[in-house]
């Protein structure tokens, strides 16, 4: 939606399997006056057809891989190949997903998929993008401050729920456990080890 606001002549399409997420996005689009310029729908990104000049794919590589509950390595190569097929030569992709910022530790991988090969390094993602038919225009990594903001969003959600519900609520213990698990996974686990890489890619 921010891209559409910045490019008044552009139209956009967004898909997600989560109907609540799509409904939320539609409310935001309506509030920004973008209703007529964006098509948001419940659909599988793996079913998208080509023809887009610009594509944004952040944290969704799993769409082109095995079911998440199988705990397999992130399918960067299939994702990048599929995304390359959505755009013509000269098209641009903003691609982002998890990377190892430094060699994974046992504490870091345990709350994730439990395997050292779940992610690769930023340089390796860049090489995979080239192999898929892209030329990198820019390669970045999210800062630790950005990660803290992202993870704090989970903590804030749990905190608000606990503040808004009585202690005797039947779900209180579950929410407290989820909050504790999230804090432990991040602060005692993958903080500073799991990163997020962003690549600005040109289809060649």
Q: What is the terminal-to-terminal distance?
A: 27 Å
Which ranges are low-confidence, i.e. pLDDT below 50, for 5 or more consecutive residues?
A: none
What fraction of the residues are assigned to beta strands by DSSP?
A: 15-25%
Q: Could you give the order of strands across the largest sheet?
A: 3-4-6-5
Judging from the principal axes of the Cα atoms, what is the shape?
globular
Helix content: 25-40%
Q: Give helix and strand order, one letter per element, not per position.
A: HEHEEHEHHEHHE
Q: Tell me the structural class.
A: alpha/beta
For the secondary structure, the number of strands is: 6
Total of helices: 7
Alpha carbon gyration radius: 19 Å
What summary fits the major beta sheet?
4 strands, mixed
Mean pLDDT, to the nearest integer, reads: 96
Description of the molecule:
This protein has 204 residues and is α/β, with parallel strands linked by helices. Helix content is 40%, strand content 21%. It has seven helices and six strands; from the N terminus they run H-E-H-E-E-H-E-H-H-E-H-H-E. The chain has helices at residues 2-6, 19-31, 76-84, 106-109, 122-131, 144-164, 172-190, and strands at 12-16, 38-42, 54-58, 92-100, 134-141, 194-203. Helix 3 (76-84) packs across helix 5 and helix 6 runs antiparallel to helix 7. The radius of gyration is 19 Å and the shape is globular. The relative contact order is 0.15. The mean pLDDT is 96.
């Amino acid at each position: 939606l921010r891209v559409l606001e910045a490019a008044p002549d552009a139209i956009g399409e967004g898909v997600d399997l989560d109907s609540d997420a799509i409904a939320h996005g539609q409310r935001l689009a309506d509030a920004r006056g973008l209703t007529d310029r964006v098509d948001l729908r419940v659909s599988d990104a793996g079913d998208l057809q080509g023809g887009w000049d610009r594509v944004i794919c952040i944290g969704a590589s799993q769409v082109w891989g095995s079911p998440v509950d199988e705990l397999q390595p992130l399918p960067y190569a299939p994702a990048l190949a599929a995304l390359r097929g959505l755009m013509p030569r000269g098209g641009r992709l903003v691609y982002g997903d998890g990377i190892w910022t430094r060699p994974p530790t046992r504490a870091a991988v345990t709350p994730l998929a439990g395997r050292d090969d779940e992610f690769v390094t930023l340089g390796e993602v860049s090489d995979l993008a080239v192999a898929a038919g892209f030329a990198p225009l820019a390669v970045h990594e999210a800062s630790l401050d950005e990660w803290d903001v992202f993870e704090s969003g989970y903590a804030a959600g749990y905190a608000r729920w606990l503040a808004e519900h009585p202690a005797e609520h039947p779900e209180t213990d579950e929410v407290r456990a989820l909050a504790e698990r999230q804090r432990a996974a991040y602060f005692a686990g993958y903080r500073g080890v799991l990163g997020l890489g962003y690549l600005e890619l040109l289809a060649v």
